[in-house]
């Protein structure tokens, strides 16, 4: 086995989660899909610190889950939610696009409902997007040129594009090198690729776990991602680095770049130990703020919530129900949980039945503000360590 980014064959164990579900998205109430659990094991490359699953689940199995069950709150269909991550991307990218007006065609890979395209299309003569989930259907209803399909060698568009955007896709790809080759085939000569992906160096250094799931088969840091793209003559020229990586690439002479890998190796060596300690602290936090005669609510019905529950061994029997703003989750549930997912306006009917709300979403600030607007008198726990009285 060789690293996809640097070709090294030297790996070391990072962390193992003994029981983790393959399917971490909601399914219809009447669905007969049976959940399958397995050990989730991650290794890291000792040269570039790229992280990968070993062994990897079958790609065909994961792809069928994306097509059938992938669920995400649609910012276009849910106006009461401000998509923080999407808007942060726009704040960084749109000023540059406005400044460089020579570009006329934009293509987005994995665009979901097309929220980003809806904001950027005014700067282009032509826009197009691909997404295999039902988010594509939402985008079409809003007049966007989105096709419900995967982006691969069999579905490559005939057009050439000036800007290619791919957000939170490459970490799901089994063969990133082939993925990059396919992107190169639709690039105009002066085209720009804009990649966004979780920055796993951030998660390692801050002892976070929420991005580790069977769906994330390749986990990049800045060095490993740039190293991979440079193998195809693509060089970075603009970047933003925090919990996510946003990197602009264009064709160029990569030999002029001098990359240094200054990773703190102890963050990787000590990650498992820190994770175990954090799990103990979280379970103690919940126990110390929990009335054992009542259950609690989980706000967030995405993969993020399920990841946190199984990473930290939170008792699934104590969850009364999940809450979510995504109307597409109506009449749906998570496998392994008996109750259906409910909309926020249902909470007032259960005030005497739960003790606190556990926010398990990347949009925790938006959700906390929504809880305050709804005037729900409760304690709120935001993992990993925050308790708030509303």
- Low-confidence segments: none
* CATH fold annotation of the largest domain: Rossmann fold
What share of residues are in beta strands?
Answer: 25-35%
Give a short account of the largest sheet.
7 strands, mixed
Give the H and E element order.
EEEEHHEHEHEEHEHEHEEHHEHEEEHEE
Helix content: 25-40%
Broad shape: globular
Give average pLDDT, whole number.
Answer: 89
Strand order of the largest sheet: 7-6-5-8-9-12-11
Structural class: alpha/beta
Q: State the name of the first-level CATH class of the largest domain.
A: Alpha Beta
Explain this structure to me?
The protein is of the alpha/beta class and 390 residues long. It folds into 2 domains: 84-266, 3-Layer(aba) Sandwich (Rossmann fold); 272-389, Rossmann fold (3-Layer(aba) Sandwich), CATH 3.40.50. It contains 11 helices and 18 strands. The strands form 4 sheets. It has a 7-stranded mixed sheet.
């Amino acid at each position: 086995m060789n690293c996809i980014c640097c070709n090294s064959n030297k790996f070391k164990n990072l962390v193992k989660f003994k029981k983790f579900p393959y399917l971490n998205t909601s399914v219809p109430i009447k669905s007969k899909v049976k959940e399958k659990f397995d050990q989730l094991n991650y290794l890291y490359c000792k040269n570039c610190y790229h992280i990968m699953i070993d062994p990897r689940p079958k790609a065909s199995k994961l792809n069928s889950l994306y097509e059938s069950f992938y669920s995400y709150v649609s910012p276009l269909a849910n106006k009461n939610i401000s998509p923080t991550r999407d808007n942060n991307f726009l704040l960084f990218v749109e000023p540059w696009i406005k400044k460089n007006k020579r570009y006329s065609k934009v293509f987005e890979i994995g665009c979901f409902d097309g929220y980003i395209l809806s904001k950027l299309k005014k700067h282009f003569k032509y826009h197009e997007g691909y997404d295999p989930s039902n988010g594509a259907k939402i985008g079409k209803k809003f007049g966007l040129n989105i096709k419900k399909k995967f982006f691969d060698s069999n579905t490559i568009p005939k057009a050439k594009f000036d800007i290619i955007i791919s957000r939170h896709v490459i970490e799901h790809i089994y063969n990133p090198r082939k993925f990059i080759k396919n992107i190169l085939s639709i690039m105009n000569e002066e085209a720009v690729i804009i990649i966004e992906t979780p920055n796993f160096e951030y998660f390692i250094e801050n002892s976070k776990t929420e991005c580790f799931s069977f769906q994330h088969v390749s986990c990049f840091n800045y060095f490993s991602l740039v190293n991979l793209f440079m193998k195809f003559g693509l060089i970075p020229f603009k970047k933003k680095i925090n919990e996510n990586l946003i990197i602009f690439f264009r064709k160029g002479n990569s030999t002029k770049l001098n990359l240094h890998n200054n990773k703190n190796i102890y963050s990787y060596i000590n990650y498992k130990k820190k994770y175990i300690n954090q799990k103990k602290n979280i379970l103690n936090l919940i126990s110390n703020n929990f009335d054992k005669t009542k259950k609690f609510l989980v706000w967030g019905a995405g993969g993020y919530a399920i990841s946190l529950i199984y990473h930290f061994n939170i008792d699934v029997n104590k969850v009364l129900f999940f809450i979510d703003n995504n109307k597409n989750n109506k009449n749906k549930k998570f496998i392994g949980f008996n109750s259906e997912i409910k909309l926020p306006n249902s909470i007032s009917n259960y005030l005497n039945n739960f003790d606190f709300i556990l926010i398990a979403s990347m949009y925790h600030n938006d959700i906390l503000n929504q809880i305050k607007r709804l005037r729900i008198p409760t304690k709120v726990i935001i993992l990993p360590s925050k308790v708030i009285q509303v």
